[in-house]
Specification:
By secondary structure, the chain is mainly beta.
């Protein structure tokens, strides 16, 4: 598996793995002046070796001349020092206009920190900044210096920011660009280096994570490999009563063409100061604006009201209020009450939880003066849900569907139905609205996500066809046996959800449009996208409309141990079996197998995964971390609860017919490893979803084997489980291999 970084403005790329050539152009170029530096196979963060800087006085690694525009700068490399701490003021790079000039460089400071020197625009005494980060070991570490076009500078170590400030190095041509060498008489760098990169742009957070997590699996090209297919975002217009884009006019486009939707308006206008669409938004002046809808009523089929809003400061007033009369006995409204969102139905308050007199939810409306999407849905059974920016902030069930089926003749946007509350905001703050929608049905979570994450291109039609287009990667489907189950993933907030469908043939792709959502960030439309269980497809890849990867690939089948899991191995020094944490295993360690004696560790790797928590029922079980209970596996040898991903197999000596049928249904057949049956944790009755929600470190390893497809039975926390095959670790796991 390869992880692509866009090669836009890539000036230099020295892998330093097999040679010391510059591969920024895609082919090897010997453009550096080098003395006292050579490739060593003693250690590497790549595949073969690393540049060894001997630290001798005549050491030279000089790059061609560099000139940075104000587009941004990134300098990234992997470093392993030979001493801890490294010599004071030894540089990992030092770029200058000429010899003996401090233009900008990063230096180690004898264990007390790291220091940055610059003669360019920089906040700091005498052009020097000292950090508190100190190198205290001789392990490999990733260093990345990023400066944005707006002069925000950050030093990252192992993917984490350790220091930030405001400044920009020189844009004058630099003729003395040194790596591992000082412009002055300071000690030369002594240690190893891999993957030295120079960009004339600030890399993204995703690209930084790629550089740190997957150094040996990176590619640098203008677009990722794969077939890009078009995809549309559509919300069915069933029971759509009002659709006010408020982009260029105040008309209702629920029927597809613009028509009058207001009984009367006062001071309602479209301005171009703010917009979430393309041109403008409805302006509410916080005082005299009146926007009264033509009378309508809700049938008992559900309700959804959605809109984009932007205000300033603490909002405190009515966003919309639909009522039969001024008494609000039959009504539904959404307000911001002293900064908190509040729902009122039939003059009674409902919400995720209440505060004080019970008029507000606990959700504090943002005061960042930015656009936010709000959606309130009511199901026919009376379940109320509030979404903010496409993510549910909770729901509550009223006793029955509210009595709002009477004609609502006192329905307003931006003010109370009885006129007693000031329009839009009691503090007279102006506000803006885009894409105000009213449905006589409860929108699905996915439809809310479409509207909230893709406002400018979402369409409202009765079918899947629409004019808006987004992109995703579709794997090759020319060789699969029909039919094929396909899992489609989309993003809601920070959580991946999924749905499974069956494609009847290679052309049946339209259903994919029903399970993909997008979000926006950094000025691009990001598609949280599509992956399928085609043969050979193992991970979810996310692309923007230009074909650039967004976020790290998400494996569809993860088989791993949670960090700190204990593995039984042979200790050659003590000459006895011992338990060691999986993250402490090393290549060459002898791990005990169930039937094959002790086998050497050939590959070990790790990665971070997001555990969705036990309450998330949308995500496929294979993607959860499961806890295998000690209480129910004591006789099998488990001495402490075991945490593994759902696709990791526990090995059982026997199976019930019911379990055998479940395994066949999910895996196609029952498989055996070293005379024991493989039972995925998500199918094991002695395992349950781990309730923790968040990012965790997972590890896996493969043992020596002449057949790279085979694995072994090994012991984890005392329980017999499967190890990985060599092929899985090398091609499918998506891990950083160490």
């Amino acid at each position: 598996m390869a992880y692509n970084i866009n090669n836009s403005n890539l000036l230099n790329y020295y892998p330093m793995d097999k040679d010391l050539s510059d591969y920024a152009s895609g082919t090897a170029t010997n453009n550096a002046t080098i003395t006292g530096v050579s490739v060593s196979t003693a250690t590497t963060k790549m595949t073969s070796g690393a540049a060894y800087f001997s630290g001798v006085a005549n050491q030279i690694f000089k790059l061609p001349n560099l000139q940075f525009t104000a587009n941004g700068i990134t300098i990234s490399t992997w470093i392993k020092t030979t001493s801890a701490p490294p010599a004071a003021y030894s540089r990992w790079f030092d770029f200058a206009i000429g010899a003996m000039n401090n233009e900008f460089c990063w230096a180690f400071n004898n264990g007390t920190g790291m220091e940055y020197f610059s003669a360019g625009s920089l906040s700091g005494p005498n052009g020097k900044i000292g950090t508190t980060y100190a190198v205290s070991d001789t392990n490999w570490h990733h260093y990345c210096f990023v400066v944005s076009s707006s002069y925000n500078a950050v030093l990252y170590v192992d993917g984490v920011s350790v220091y930030s400030w405001t400044g920009y190095p020189t844009t004058t041509t630099m003729t003395n660009c040194l790596v591992g060498v000082s412009q002055f008489g300071d000690p030369m760098f002594n240690g190893y280096m891999n993957q030295f990169l120079v960009f004339n742009r600030a890399i993204t957070a995703t690209e930084l994570s790629y550089l740190y997590q997957f150094p040996s699996l990176l590619t640098f090209s203008a677009a990722p490999t794969g077939t890009l297919a078009s995809l549309t975002f559509n919300v069915n217009n069933s029971n759509l009563l009002y659709n006010f884009p408020f982009d260029t006019d105040t008309l209702n486009y629920a029927s597809g063409t613009g028509q009058t939707g207001f009984a009367n308006t006062v001071a309602l206008s479209i301005g171009n100061t703010h917009t979430k669409l393309s041109s403008g938004s409805a302006t509410f002046n916080g005082n005299t604006t009146v926007a009264r809808l033509t009378p309508f009523s809700f049938a008992s089929t559900g309700v959804s009201v959605a809109l984009w809003t932007i205000g300033s400061g603490l909002m405190d007033g009515c966003i919309y209020d639909f009522a039969a009369d001024t008494s609000a006995t039959a009504s539904t409204s959404l307000t911001v009450n002293q900064g908190n969102l509040a729902i009122r139905i039939n003059n009674a308050s409902v919400g995720t939880s209440t505060v004080g007199a019970g008029t507000r939810t606990n959700y504090v409306y943002p005061t960042d003066s930015a656009w936010h999407h709000i959606c309130h849905t009511i199901t026919p059974a009376g379940l109320n849900t509030i979404y903010v920016d496409g993510v549910s902030i909770g729901n509550t069930r009223v006793s029955a569907y509210p009595s709002i089926t009477a004609t609502l003749g006192n329905a307003f946007i931006g003010r109370s139905s009885n006129g007693s509350a000031a329009p839009w905001s009691g503090n007279n703050h102006p506000g803006y609205v885009n894409q105000f929608l009213v449905f006589n049905r409860a929108l699905t979570e996915l439809e809310v996500c479409y509207i909230a994450k893709n406002p400018a291109t979402v369409s409202f039609t009765g079918n899947a066809s629409a004019s808006s287009t987004a992109y995703f990667l579709t794997p090759s489907i020319s060789n699969y046996r029909s039919p094929v189950p396909v899992s489609l993933y989309y993003m809601t907030g920070d959580t991946f959800a999924g749905r499974t469908y069956t494609l009847k043939n290679s052309y049946d792709m339209s259903i994919m449009g029903n399970a993909v959502a997008s979000t926006t960030g950094g000025g691009l439309s990001y598609i949280f996208g599509v992956s399928a269980f085609y043969p050979g497809t193992t991970s979810l890849l996310v692309y923007d409309p230009s074909g650039n990867t967004i976020g790290a690939p998400v494996p569809l089948t993860i088989a791993c141990f949670l960090e700190t899991t204990l593995i039984l191995k042979w200790d050659p020094v003590q000459r006895e079996e011992t338990w060691v944490a999986v993250e402490k295993l090393k290549k060459g360690d002898f791990v005990k197998t169930s039937c094959s004696g002790y086998k050497r560790v050939q590959i070990i790797g790790h990665r971070k995964v997001h555990n969705a928590g036990a309450k998330n029922t949308n995500l496929d079980n294979q993607m959860h971390v499961f806890r295998v209970s000690k209480r129910e596996n004591r006789e099998a040898g488990l001495f402490v609860d075991l945490y593994v991903t759902g696709n990791h197999c526990v090995l059982r000596k026997s199976l019930t017919e019911e379990l055998r049928d479940k395994i066949r249904a999910d895996m196609g057949d029952v498989y055996i490893t070293e005379k024991s049956y493989r039972v995925p944790a998500y199918l094991d009755s002695c395992a349950e979803k781990w309730e923790y929600s968040g990012e965790v470190n997972v590890w896996h390893f493969a043992l020596e084997n002449e057949n790279r497809l085979w694995n072994y039975g090994v012991y984890a926390n005392g329980l017999l489980v499967e190890s990985s095959s060599i092929r899985y670790m090398e091609e499918l796991a998506g891990m950083e291999l160490i």
